[in-house]
Amino acid sequence: MAGARRTAVLIGGLGAGAVLVASTVLAPGLASAEPAPAAVTATAVGWAAQNGGTTGGGGASKVTVRTVSELTAALDGSTAKVVEVSGNISCSGMIRVGSNKTLRGASGARLSGCGLNVRQVKNVIVENLAFNGWDDDAINIETSTNVLIDHNTFGTGYDGSVDTKRGSDFVTISWNHFDGQDKNSLVGHSDDNGSQDRGHLRVSYHHNWFDGTNQRNPRVRFGNPVHVFNNLYTNVGSYGVASTQEAGVLVEGNYFENTEDPFHRGEGSSSAGGLLARNNHFVNSGGGQQGGSVASVPYSYRLDSASQVKSIVSAGAGQS
What we know:
The protein has 320 residues and is mainly β. α1 (68-74) links the parallel β4 (62-65) and β5 (81-85). Strands 6, 8, 10, 11, 13, 14, 16, 19, 22, 25 and 28 form an 11-stranded parallel β-sheet that branches. A 10-stranded parallel β-sheet has the order 4-5-7-9-12-15-18-21-24-27. A 4-stranded parallel β-sheet has the order 17-20-23-26, with no helix packed on it. The chain starts with 5 loop residues before the first strand and ends with a helix. 6% of the residues lie in helices and 41% in strands. The protein is globular, with a radius of gyration of 18 Å. It has helices at residues 68-74, 194-197, 309-316; strands at residues 6-11, 19-21, 29-34, 62-65, 81-85, 88-96, 101-105, 110-119, 122-127, 130-132, 139-142, 145-150, 153-154, 162-165, 169-174, 177-179, 186-187, 203-206, 209-211, 219-221, 226-229, 232-234, 241-244, 248-252, 255-257, 263-265, 274-278, 281-283, 293-295, 301-304.
C-alpha cells in the first residue's frame, strides 16, 4: 500500500554530545510535505542514513529467486546484489544475508517458516516481504551496521519479529506492519552485554504499525539514543516501549490507541533507562512513564503530526 503525501514537521540536528533531560521539550519548525518512501525503493531515514548511509545492493542487476536454495545462494558473499523473492518460499531455520544486499519481495512474496540472519555484515536492506511462522527470529540483526528494514509485514512466529543485538549499529526499522506477535522487537538481548553494546545499538523506529503486538515495541537495553517516532500502536496488550539498562529512548509523535501502558522505564529484572516522551497522541490509552536523560538525536528528520499518524501509517505500512 503506497503512502500518501503528508504535511510534516522538521526537527533539526541537535548535536551528538548534548543530553536531553526528560522535562525538555523542543519546539519544532514547519517544513514542506514529502512523500512516503515507496516499498520497493526504500530510502533510509534516521540512524541507517548515518555512517555513510545504507544502500544495499544499490544499482546492481536484479536476481529473481523462487526456491530456498536459490535464495540462500543469492544472499551469500559480499558482492552487491538486488535479490527479489517471487512467490511463497517455505523454509526453516535462519538464512544468512551477506553484506551489500537488497532483499526485496515481489508483490505478495512471502517467507514461511524461516528467518533472516543479518550477522557480522554491513549495508543491508530488507523490503516488501511478508514473514510468517518463523522458527527463531524473523530477522536477527547481530554485530552488523547500516541495516534498513522497510515496508515488510510480520505475522507471528517463535521469537522476535526484528531483534537488534550484540553491538549492531546504524539501524532503521520503518514502515513495517507488525501483526499480533507477542515478544516483538528487542534492542539489546542481555543485561550482561554492556561491554559490547554501550555506544552502539542506535536504532530508529518510524512509521511502523504495532498491531496487537503484546510487548517489546521495542524493549531497549544500552542503545542511546534509540528514536521511536511517528509509529501507530493499536490494541497493544502488555506494553509499548520499555527503556532499560542504561538505554536512552526518545518516544515522539506516536499514536497510541487502546494501549494501557504505552511506554515505561525498566522491565522485568532490568533497571530503568532514560525515556523522553513528547508530542504523542493518546486514544483510550494510558499516559506513559518518562524520566532520566536521553542523548540528542544527531540527524534531521521530518515529523508528522501525531494526530494524523493513524491514517498515514495504516495506509502506508507493510508489504505492498
